[in-house]
Design goal:
By secondary structure, this protein is α/β, with parallel strands linked by helices. The protein contains five helices and 15 strands. It has a single domain, classed as Nitrilase/N-carbamoyl-D-aminoacid amidohydrolase (4-Layer Sandwich), CATH 3.60.110.10. A hairpin with an 8-residue loop joins strand 11 and strand 12. It has a six-stranded mixed β-sheet. The chain has a six-stranded mixed β-sheet with strand order 6-7-8-10-13-14, covered by helices on one side. Helix 1 packs parallel to helix 2 and helix 3 runs parallel beside helix 4.
Length: 300
């Protein structure tokens, strides 16, 4: 933070593109180390990938895996709260949340520089695809789309499947977020990669760049990387990495690889954001008097 608690016009984000193992403690210790490394490289707000504490367990349906969940004030959040305080950074922590017996969420916890939790977001859109069996594990979010006040202005957090829905991006941006973070666990089914891989990856980048453009905000996509195979008789998943930061014109200003673990650092410039919105005033020209049908499934 700058002097006198004045919100800075520029700050840096750190996106942690991680390779994750079956060992939760190993992943958590790596996260703490990487938060420190990102802070030393100038990051002010740091985001971890979706469900970073474990391998992506939703490849199968197994009731024993509910034991991986923990409350929002559990061990993972406490340890990363200490890391946030020690390094004077904001940290966005995705967890498998145990809300109550039998009620679980896919959640992000936003922690400020003092180690205090300033908000939580529960994933609103829950997928159910081969090897992405999230409806088995996660109750849909009930907190709505949210932005959070930080020392760097308002930021929004959504999660993975949310990234395909313009409504979530819009409603978060309308609350004043200057950046939308999308922690993710997304990749290819290995048998499909050769035929569909390039198209799928391009669609993922394009839709999120579209959110940046349509809302005049920065967008940060934070993915894991590597091959994970939860059970031997499955094909597993090849996570495509490719974490990136896009500016309010959709220009990719920082990009990670498809294969490597990386700490991606990028700068947020609020003056640049304001200049884009002055010239592309999409929020000004919205016809809010004509959008009531958006709440319908289809218009028959």
């Amino acid at each position: 933070m700058s002097e006198g608690n004045k919100i800075p016009r520029k700050y840096k984000v750190g996106l942690l593109q991680m390779r994750l193992s079956k060992k939760g403690e190993e992943n958590l210790n790596k996260a703490v180390s990487w938060v420190k490394d990102a802070s030393l490289r100038g990051a002010n707000i740091i985001c971890l990938p979706e469900l970073f504490k474990t391998e992506y367990f939703c490849q199968i349906e197994d009731t024993d895996l509910f034991d991986l969940a923990e409350p929002v004030d559990g061990k993972t959040v406490k340890i990363l709260s200490n890391a946030a305080k020690e390094n004077n950074v904001v940290v966005i922590v995705p967890i498998f949340e145990k809300r109550s017996e039998g009620v679980y969420h896919n959640t992000t916890v936003v922690i400020d520089e003092n180690g205090n939790t300033i908000g939580t977001y529960r994933k609103m859109h829950i997928p159910d695809d081969p090897a992405f069996y999230e409806k088995f594990y996660f109750t849909p979010g009930d907190l709505g789309f949210k932005s959070f006040d930080t020392g760097y202005g308002k930021v929004g957090t959504l999660i993975c499947w949310d990234q395909w829905f313009p409504e979530g991006a819009r409603l978060t941006a309308l609350q004043g977020a200057n950046i939308l973070f999308y922690p993710a666990a997304i990749g290819w089914h290995p048998k499909e990669k050769e035929k569909y891989g390039a198209v799928q990856l391009d669609a993922w980048k394009t839709v999120q760049r579209g959110h940046a453009i349509a809302n005049g905000v920065y967008v940060a996509a934070v993915n894991r990387v590597g091959f994970e195979k939860r059970v031997e008789d499955s094909d597993g998943l090849k996570f495509w990495g490719s974490s990136f930061l896009a500016d309010p014109q959709g220009v990719i200003i920082a990009q990670a690889s498809e294969e490597k673990e990386e700490i991606l650092i990028g700068e947020i410039d609020i003056d640049h954001l304001e200049n884009i919105r002055r010239n592309w005033p999409f929020l000004r020209d919205r016809r809010i008097d004509a959008y009531s049908d958006i709440t319908k499934r289809l218009i028959d």
